[in-house]
Amino acid sequence: MTIFYIALIVCAAAFPQEIPELCIKAGCPKGGTVFDPFFGAGTTGLVAMRLGRDFIGIELNEKYCEMSRKRIYGELGKQNETRPTRMAEKP
Q1: Which of 5, 17, 20, 56 is most buried by a 10 A CB count?
Q2: How crowded is the C-beta side of 81, counted as CA atoms within 13 Å?
Q3: pLDDT class of 37 with cuts at 50, 70, 90
Q4: Residues 46, 32, 25, 61: is their CA dihedral positive or negative?
């Protein structure tokens, strides 16, 4: 029960972009792919895009899926780039 409670708090917590930036720079070469199995609001994906990496994000909560889509598409619109190749919908 305690582990589940902690996981819920972590998923809802926002974090600064510097945290995934350090990890991405240290562990993923330019042109590589970043995998985030707890995508949340999409911060890791936004940072990956900014650093020239592709990304795969998985999120079960539909609210966060929609939030991350809006953030990522909004950022792509600012950069005048095309949309991601595919953003999967719930089956």
Answers
A1: 20
A2: 13
A3: very high
A4: positive
Helix (H) or strand (E) holding 34: strand 33-36
Q: Looking at the whole model, is its pTM more than 0.85? A: no
Query: What's the rounded Cα separation, in Å, for the pair 46 and 24?
Result: 11
pLDDT, tens digit (0-9, with 9 covering 90-100), for 64-89: 999 999 999 888 887 655 555 556 66
The CA-atom distances, in angstroms, between 48 and each of 3, 4, 44, 67, 85 are: 29, 28, 6, 17, 15
Give CA–CA dist 34/23, Å, rounded. Answer: 10
Helices and strands of the chain, counted as H and E runs:
4, 2
Domains of the chain: 2-79 (3.40.50.150)
